[in-house]
């Protein structure tokens, strides 16, 4: 036996402490790939970031600058609501449609068959949604501070950013539910069909107190309403309900969404591959 | 009814082709063992009314390349899914290195290439390989993986801009990047042109040269022949035949005898050396390892045989006969298109 063979054999027969892959590195690479994947996809990145910014500049800065809503400047309240609108879109489209497409392409199956820790997949998608959310919030804030004349205390800016970025979490869960319940072709349409009316009825486009009466009564049943209210609370323009109620509502949305996602993903073994 | 090949190295053409299912062959590797890359025991898997696997036994030994051969719906992909831990058997067991296929420690020793897999199009080949390599405890260097898969020159190209063959090579790179002891390839060359197929075969052979086990599924007998040490022919979730490529070819390849005869299907199948027979309208098509004994007997039993024709059977043809003959009455074979291995949905 040559020395080289002996070394290999000795190495192979000592499995007491086999090397382990570095979990942190897996999470890092997974998140980086997820982010690069979507940053390089203009069809996702441009509308996801561009629409909230465009809407804010159009509806808040152009049409309503100087007007007051509930004693607070319209460009300030709309910074909160269009911020909520933007981060919800990033979560629903980035997470939801992404999952639907990757299920259909067999990518998810290949990952499930690999030794990837399942958590890395979800971590990467949540991270990506939060990065897009942060970009949206920063760009909206810059537009608000410069074009919209929004003036907030440093603590308020930070709190608004934190609420909006963390507020993507329940909508990541909701996106996951859409992603597992819808096919890759129907997912974008279904998400739009739910997202746009829901955002409107939650007062994210037009302040909720300006909506028709029945929509005002419906609004608290809309998940985005509660994120909108939390963001508005930072700028003292919310409807006055306790923050705990909104957090509880968003937690409920998260739990229901994860249950639906589990139920929808159950059949994957049968349908794919 | 179950058919098995004679297990001796030199197949005996006179041995009865049909064995009673009541006397199953002994399975030598009854107890799953950590050194055994894959072991499936009595696996049953049903999807609604469809029985995908019907008591399948399969063992893969270290360093062995096994081809699962069969038409669509034979249970090849289901077998793969059990081994990958992405489906669970309704009965029986599937073991990877003696343990649960869902256990990451066992998956560290497994590399997989799936039939249906498109990876995100905007990421480059290198980025994909780098990500997948991170899942394994002792991966190959990324550059080496790309080189072994023959895509070193495409490292920076996004997946979306690769050709069909190049995409398959990247998926192959993802399968072998972790230095696996078992490589599972589900129809690795389906849909590829001849050149791309042969290229991928060369890569697989290069991998096998390193004492690793491979399980591959395929429709193509020539692919199984080119790569495998052992071929397992599946049909309707059961093992129809099993042996070395030489044994399977001796069993499947041979002469095709076409004629008009008054003999019954049973009588035709009972002719010496005939392994399979099917009806194409009024014409019988029988497959035999050697034509002469079969034709001699045929003419002796039916003096009115007409339009007799003996040709060399292509491997695919003979294989089709092998799989379509076992469980189906001639009426079923009659309606099947003669040049296809597909049988309904996968």
Structure, explained:
The complex is a heterodimer of chains A (273) and B (346). Helices cover 75% and strands 1% of the residues of chain A. By secondary structure, chain A is mostly helical. Chain A has one domain (22-265). Chain A has a two-stranded antiparallel sheet. In chain A, β1 and β2 (72-73) form a beta hairpin. The longest helix of chain A has 31 residues, at 74-104. Chain A is globular and about 65 Å long. Chain B is an alpha/beta fold and 346 residues long. Chain B folds into 2 domains: 38-249, 3-Layer(aba) Sandwich (Rossmann fold), CATH 3.40.50.300; 253-335. Chain B contains 12 helices and 13 strands. Chain B has helices spanning 76-84, 104-107, 125-133, 142-148, 164-176, 194-208, 221-227, 245-252, 265-269, 291-301, 315-327, 330-335, and strands at 38-47, 50-60, 65-69, 91-96, 110-113, 182-186, 213-218, 230-235, 238-243, 255-260, 274-280, 283-288, 306-312. Chain B has a 6-stranded mixed beta sheet, sandwiched between helices. Chain B has a 4-stranded antiparallel beta sheet with strand order 11-12-10-13. The longest helix of chain B is centred in the middle third of the chain and has 15 residues, at 194-208. Chain B is elongated. The two termini of chain B are 23 Å apart. Residues 1-30 and 325-346 of chain B have low confidence and may be disordered. The A-B interface holds A 18-22, 25-26, 29-30, 33, 36-38, 40-41, 102, 105-107, 109-110, 112-117, 269-270, 272-273 and B 47, 77, 81, 84-87, 104-105, 107-108, 110, 112, 114-120, 122-123, 127-128, 130-132, 134-138, 158, 171, 174, 178.
Topology, please?
The complex is a heterodimer of chains A (273) and B (346).
Chain A (H helix, E strand, L loop, with lengths): L2 H10 L10 H17 L2 H23 L3 E2 L2 E2 H31 L2 H7 L4 H29 L7 H13 L1 H14 L4 H16 L11 H6 L4 H12 L8 H23 L2 H4 L2
Chain B lengths: L37 E10 L2 E11 L4 E5 L6 H9 L6 E6 L7 H4 L2 E4 L11 H9 L8 H7 L15 H13 L5 E5 L7 H15 L4 E6 L2 H7 L2 E6 L2 E6 L1 H8 L2 E6 L4 H5 L4 E7 L2 E6 L2 H11 L4 E7 L2 H13 L2 H6 L11
Parallel strand pairs in B: 3-7, 3-8, 5-6, 6-7
Antiparallel strand pairs in B: 1-2, 1-4, 8-9, 10-12, 10-13, 11-12
Helix pairs in contact in B: 3-4, 5-6
């Amino acid at each position: 036996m040559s020395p080289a063979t002996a070394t290999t054999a000795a190495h192979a027969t000592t499995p007491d402490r086999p090397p382990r892959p570095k979990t942190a590195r897996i999470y890092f690479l997974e998140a980086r790939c997820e982010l690069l994947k979507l940053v390089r996809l203009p069809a996702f990145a441009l509308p996801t970031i561009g629409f909230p910014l465009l809407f804010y500049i159009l509806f808040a800065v152009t049409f309503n600058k100087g007007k007051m809503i509930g004693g607070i400047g319209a460009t300030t309240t709309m910074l909160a609501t269009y911020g909520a609108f933007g981060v919800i879109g990033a979560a629903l489209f980035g997470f939801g449609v992404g999952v639907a497409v990757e299920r259909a392409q067999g990518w998810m199956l290949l990952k499930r068959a690999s030794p990837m820790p399942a958590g890395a997949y979800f971590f990467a998608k949540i991270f990506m949604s939060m990065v897009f959310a942060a970009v949206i919030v920063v760009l909206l804030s810059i537009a608000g501070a410069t074009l919209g004349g929004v003036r907030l205390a440093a603590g308020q800016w930070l709190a608004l950013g934190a609420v909006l970025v963390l507020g993507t979490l329940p909508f990541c869960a909701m996106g996951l539910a859409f992603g597992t319940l819808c096919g890759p072709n129907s997912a974008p349409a279904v998400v739009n069909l739910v997202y746009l009316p829901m955002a409107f009825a939650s007062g994210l486009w037009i302040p909720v107190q300006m909506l028709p009466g029945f929509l005002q009564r419906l609004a608290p049943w809309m998940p985005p309403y509660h994120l909108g209210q939390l963001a508005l609370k930072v700028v003292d323009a919310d409807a006055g309900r306790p923050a705990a109620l909104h957090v509880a509502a968003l937690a409920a949305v998260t739990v229901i969404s994860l249950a639906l996602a589990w139920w929808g993903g159950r059949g994957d073994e049968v349908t794919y591959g | 009814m179950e058919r098995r090949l004679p297990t001796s190295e030199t197949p005996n053409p006179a041995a009865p082709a049909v064995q009673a299912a009541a006397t199953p062959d002994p399975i030598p590797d009854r107890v799953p063992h950590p050194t055994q890359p894959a072991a499936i025991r009595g696996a049953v898997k049903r999807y609604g009314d469809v029985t995908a696997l019907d008591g399948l036994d399969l063992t893969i030994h270290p360093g062995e390349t096994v081809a699962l051969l069969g038409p669509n719906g034979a249970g090849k992909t289901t077998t793969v899914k059990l081994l990958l831990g992405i489906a669970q058997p309704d009965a029986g067991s599937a073991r990877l290195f003696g343990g649960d296929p869902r256990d990451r420690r066992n998956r560290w020793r497994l590399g997989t290439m799936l039939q249906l897999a498109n990876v995100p199009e905007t990421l480059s080949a290198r980025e994909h390989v780098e990500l997948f390599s991170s899942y394994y405890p002792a991966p190959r260097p990324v550059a080496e993986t790309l080189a072994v898969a023959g895509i070193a020159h495409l490292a920076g190209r996004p997946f979306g801009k690769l050709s069909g063959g190049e995409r398959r090579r990247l998926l192959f790179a993802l399968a072998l990047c972790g230095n696996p002891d078992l490589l599972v390839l589900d129809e690795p060359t389906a849909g590829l042109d001849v050149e791309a197929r042969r290229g991928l075969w060369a890569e697989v052979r290069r991998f096998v040269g390193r004492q690793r086990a491979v399980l591959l599924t395929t429709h193509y007998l020539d692919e199984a022949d080119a790569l495998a040490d052992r071929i397992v022919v599946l049909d309707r979730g059961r093992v129809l035949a099993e042996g070395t490529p030489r044994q399977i070819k001796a069993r499947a390849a041979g002469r095709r005898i076409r004629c008009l005869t008054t003999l019954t299907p049973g009588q035709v199948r009972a002719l010496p050396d005939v392994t399979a027979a099917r009806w194409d309208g009024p014409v019988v098509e029988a497959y035999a390892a050697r034509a002469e004994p079969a034709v001699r007997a045929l003419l002796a039993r039916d003096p009115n045989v007409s339009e007799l024709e003996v040709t060399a059977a292509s491997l695919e043809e003979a294989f089709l006969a092998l799989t379509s003959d076992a469980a189906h009455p001639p009426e079923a074979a009659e309606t099947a298109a003669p040049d296809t291995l597909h049988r309904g949905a996968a």
